[in-house]
Amino acid sequence: MSSFYRRYHWQTQNVKVSGVDDMVLLSKINEEAITDNLKKRYMDDYIFTYIGAVLISVNPFKQLPYFTDREVELYQGAAQYENPPHIYALADNMYRNMMIDAENQCVIISGESGAGKTVAAKYIMSYVSKVSGGGPKVQGCKTLLLFYISLLANFSSVSRFHGKYFEIQFSRGGEPDGGKISNFLLEKSRVVSQNNGERNFHIYYQLLSGATKEQRENLGITTPDYYLYMNQSGTYTVEDVDDKKDFSETVSAMSVIGLSMDEQDAVMQIVAGILHLGNITFREEGNYAVVESEDFLAFPSYLLGIAQDGLKKKLTSRVMDSKWGGKTESISVTLNTEQACFSRDALSKALYARLFDYLVDAINKAMQKDHEEFNIGVLDIYGFEIFQQNGFEQFCINFVNEKLQQIFIELTLKAEQEEYVQEGIKWTPIEYFNNKVVCDLIESKVNPVGILSILDDVCATMHAKGEGADQTLLQKLQAQVSTNEHFNSWNKGFIVHHYAGKVSYNVSGFCERNRDVLFNDIIELMQSSEFTFIQGLFPENLEAEKKGRPTTAGAKIKKQANNLVQTLMKCTPHYIRCIKPNETKKSRDWEESRVKHQVEYLGLRENIRVRRAGYAFRRVFKKFLQRYAILTKETWPKWRGDEKQGVLHLLKSVNMDQDQYQLGKSKIFIKAPESLFLLEEMRERKYNGYARVIQQAWRKHIAVRKYVRMREEASDILLNKKERRRNSLNRNFMGDYIGTDNRPEIRQFVGRRERIEFADVVVKYDRRFKTVKRDLILTSKFLYLIGREKVKQGPDKGQIREVLKRQIQLEKIQSVSLSTLQDDFFIVHEEQYDSVLESIFKTEFLSLLYKRYEEKTQRKLPLKFNNLLEFKVKKGGWGPFASAGSRQIQFQVGQGDNVVLKPSSKTLIVSIGPGLPKNSNQSTSSGRGGVNRGRQNSSRGSMLRRQSSMDQPTLPRYNGLRPTQNQTKINNDMGSFNYTIYNIFYLARLPKPTPRPKPRAPQCRALYAYDAQDTDELSFNADDIIEIVNEDPSGWWFGRLRGREGVFPGNYVEKI
């Protein structure tokens, strides 16, 4: 078993030290030191590093083995310092804070494109789904969330082309019961084209690979190179991607979110229709566009349910409204080839975008709940982009990233320092770059107006396709914002000094993409479709919308970004800063200058300085008191006095040093994370203590009913097959006789999610029939035998330590053998070798093993009864007993209830007196059972009081000597009276006889420590001397220790 489970990671000898886990601990704080630390860890496959509570993640470009169920168990409920940095630690912190503080949480994952943000989001979703409870409804919600990730991923390709903010909604019990998705800026240009070496949206390739024969015929599906929208890059397949299998998952996901078969068919019909639209090409005739081959009009018209002539007309011409003298006149304008291609592509992009929005709405409806309680938000959005050619899409993407950087600055650098001043905390200000000036340059509505406002004004005056509009935009930008120090212009565009560096934007196509206008002709065409599904994707009221100014793409993204900021500011934020180590996308490839640049623009140096000089934790007094009230009786359940004094009382109760905290006007500030961890650990212990009390009471209640049933089942297993010991038929079953809940040295060998069904100290016999004590543990999966050995070397040399001697999978057990007499022997037969054990609780153990074996294998456990048992011994060793082979145990009737052992070569002879008949069955008594366990009767005469109808009389008062049986009758004879008096005085003068010495009570020495599991039991430590009051054949003895009496297990002690 890994030492991870016994020590903190920094105490573990075999874990390689690689840099520092938390960069607050760096000796030098500069970009070079930060980059060097990240490199050391990256090269050793440690991709996560902390800056206080901020997680830095470096994309490894390979699969790492740190995301299994073992890590989920390791990080669940653990403090940040207990384990190495990991995204699971941040996810667990979010989930626990949501439950404890009843506050919404969010995680902002930032970094440039390709830094691993989407993978990080998936790991958070996966972790939360695993630790957040069960139940059919909950599992259904979890399944829905995971399917939704798959569905949107397949319709959007990589996250660079699609941003999303998803909220996992929880009940007050912490179980996910709903969700909500917000969709940002699907890159619609990818619908109709792709860069060299890249693919289009996944759903195109999935449909072509996974469609049925009927679908292929109905939808006109052929190979990818047939479609113009797919053959531009020459890339059709991706390594390790199975499009056919993924298509099946996409169809399943649509079913899970509630789409009917007709709706699913409509979705695929539209996808196919878009592909066929792309094959419509145009040629020039007299400066006007005509369809090059009308054969290519047939399939898209058929799939979209529109007239072929209508499609042809709307792609090559459009109707324009012009006003003359207050009158509006409609004019038909014929398009050129460039405009016709634009119109075709605009229809394809509109169809795909609206279909994507439809799927998002369907998912939201499927996960909708009546009212919101708590939620965890995960922002997975496109990263900062700097390409050779940067256009309108890159401008919008970088604007959103600029807004996210602004949130980080506001909450971690600016707000933190301002808060220290407001609260009167001693503080030396730290300088940093505030990118608000860049955000204002882009989005400001007041003088000086921002780039987006100028762009919207230019778009409002565009006509037709708007030749020259882009140059007009550039001229206006030069005139209105050229004085801004973060703006420059050049002959084809402009430059913005973003937080991540200077980006040069080409204005070509800016205005057209910002208009994002679908001509009314096209909308009318789609509204005429014979398919109601397609009609529903175009719900516009064209007459009403003619009067208003259309919403531009820039305005939409600005509104979405500001709404997103408002949502995030209402949550408790957590941060993951993702770093891309190279452009080659190869593991262990490190580009120093590239990483250093990211370290600079992400502001990691300033983040470390603020965290190092500042306080790791701050909380308003009221919230702090609520969270840690349980630590003292004065603050629980509610502090009655001044909140500040209550906080001071709590801090003094845990003996926190005064230099570790400061009290502001309304908040407490704690400097070191270790001090906070101390509070959390003590709080956890308090809750655990109370929880154990409640659990113990409940378990006891459940156990009584459970073990009564088990006792009946156990009796049936041995009925007519084996003699029974006296007092064993009605014995109570307890299950755990060694208190494993309080024995971490034993629990370390058992899986964290394994429930211990039975635990007892048993006697094990080896090949020479020598005995040794073992802890026998039974879970739903394994049978464990745990022994003890003395450490031979290292810092713990000479100490006794628990060792896992054997672990047997339940399904590997072949059978169990017993004798027909009343002894406590049983043999567990396994393929390699057998284990001979002796336990006074064998019946209880066998009943549990029988049940768990059947659950695991769907078979009955073979039980064999014979007075001559044979068992296999383990291979190995040397000497006369070295060879592998078998041994025998022969049982014979002897005298008494205790076994007599006689080893002889390869046979052990066991003698024991006759027990209860084999057909003996338990009584129907519902009390604590037939085992005395040495308890003293503390209620003599109680039956008389219960059953008598008479009132209890009062004892008469006696004024004199108590009468005795042989007392002489008192009469008026004076002589007799004097004689009696004389005898009394004479006897009083006689010397008192020497009292007989009390016989010395038998004693025993404790071999192991034992924690009482019930109020009438006795706790003791190893080597304690216990006075034995009564030994019971059941194995529970009654004894006395340090003035206290109680029962205890006899197999924990040895007589002295």
Automatic annotation (TrEMBL):
<dbReference type="Pfam" id="PF00063">
    <property type="entry name" value="Myosin_head"/>
</dbReference>
<keyword id="KW-0505">Motor protein</keyword>
<dbReference type="GO" id="GO:0006897">
    <property type="term" value="P:endocytosis"/>
</dbReference>
<dbReference type="GO" id="GO:0051015">
    <property type="term" value="F:actin filament binding"/>
</dbReference>
<dbReference type="Pfam" id="PF06017">
    <property type="entry name" value="Myosin_TH1"/>
</dbReference>
<comment type="function">
    <text>Induces bone resorption, acting probably through a signaling cascade which results in the secretion of factor(s) enhancing osteoclast formation and activity.</text>
</comment>
<keyword id="KW-0597">Phosphoprotein</keyword>
<dbReference type="InterPro" id="IPR036028">
    <property type="entry name" value="SH3-like_dom_sf"/>
</dbReference>
<feature type="domain" description="SH3">
    <location>
        <begin position="999"/>
        <end position="1056"/>
    </location>
</feature>
<protein>
    <recommendedName>
        <fullName>Osteoclast-stimulating factor 1</fullName>
    </recommendedName>
</protein>
<dbReference type="GO" id="GO:0007015">
    <property type="term" value="P:actin filament organization"/>
</dbReference>
<keyword id="KW-0067">ATP-binding</keyword>
<dbReference type="GO" id="GO:0048731">
    <property type="term" value="P:system development"/>
</dbReference>
<keyword id="KW-0112">Calmodulin-binding</keyword>
<dbReference type="GO" id="GO:0005516">
    <property type="term" value="F:calmodulin binding"/>
</dbReference>
<comment type="similarity">
    <text>Belongs to the TRAFAC class myosin-kinesin ATPase superfamily. Myosin family.</text>
</comment>
<dbReference type="InterPro" id="IPR027417">
    <property type="entry name" value="P-loop_NTPase"/>
</dbReference>
<dbReference type="Pfam" id="PF14604">
    <property type="entry name" value="SH3_9"/>
</dbReference>
<feature type="domain" description="TH1">
    <location>
        <begin position="722"/>
        <end position="914"/>
    </location>
</feature>
<feature type="binding site">
    <location>
        <begin position="111"/>
        <end position="118"/>
    </location>
    <ligand>
        <name>ATP</name>
    </ligand>
</feature>
<dbReference type="InterPro" id="IPR001609">
    <property type="entry name" value="Myosin_head_motor_dom-like"/>
</dbReference>
<dbReference type="InterPro" id="IPR010926">
    <property type="entry name" value="Myosin_TH1"/>
</dbReference>
<dbReference type="GO" id="GO:0005524">
    <property type="term" value="F:ATP binding"/>
</dbReference>
<dbReference type="GO" id="GO:0016459">
    <property type="term" value="C:myosin complex"/>
</dbReference>
<dbReference type="InterPro" id="IPR035507">
    <property type="entry name" value="Ie/If_SH3"/>
</dbReference>
<dbReference type="GO" id="GO:0005902">
    <property type="term" value="C:microvillus"/>
</dbReference>
<keyword id="KW-0728">SH3 domain</keyword>
<dbReference type="InterPro" id="IPR001452">
    <property type="entry name" value="SH3_domain"/>
</dbReference>
<dbReference type="InterPro" id="IPR036961">
    <property type="entry name" value="Kinesin_motor_dom_sf"/>
</dbReference>
<feature type="region of interest" description="Actin-binding">
    <location>
        <begin position="561"/>
        <end position="583"/>
    </location>
</feature>
<keyword id="KW-0518">Myosin</keyword>
<feature type="region of interest" description="Disordered">
    <location>
        <begin position="911"/>
        <end position="972"/>
    </location>
</feature>
<feature type="compositionally biased region" description="Polar residues">
    <location>
        <begin position="962"/>
        <end position="972"/>
    </location>
</feature>
<dbReference type="GO" id="GO:0000146">
    <property type="term" value="F:microfilament motor activity"/>
</dbReference>
<keyword id="KW-0547">Nucleotide-binding</keyword>
<dbReference type="GO" id="GO:0005886">
    <property type="term" value="C:plasma membrane"/>
</dbReference>
<feature type="domain" description="Myosin motor">
    <location>
        <begin position="18"/>
        <end position="684"/>
    </location>
</feature>
<feature type="compositionally biased region" description="Polar residues">
    <location>
        <begin position="934"/>
        <end position="952"/>
    </location>
</feature>
<dbReference type="GO" id="GO:0005737">
    <property type="term" value="C:cytoplasm"/>
</dbReference>
<dbReference type="InterPro" id="IPR036072">
    <property type="entry name" value="MYSc_Myo1"/>
</dbReference>
<keyword id="KW-0040">ANK repeat</keyword>
<keyword id="KW-0009">Actin-binding</keyword>
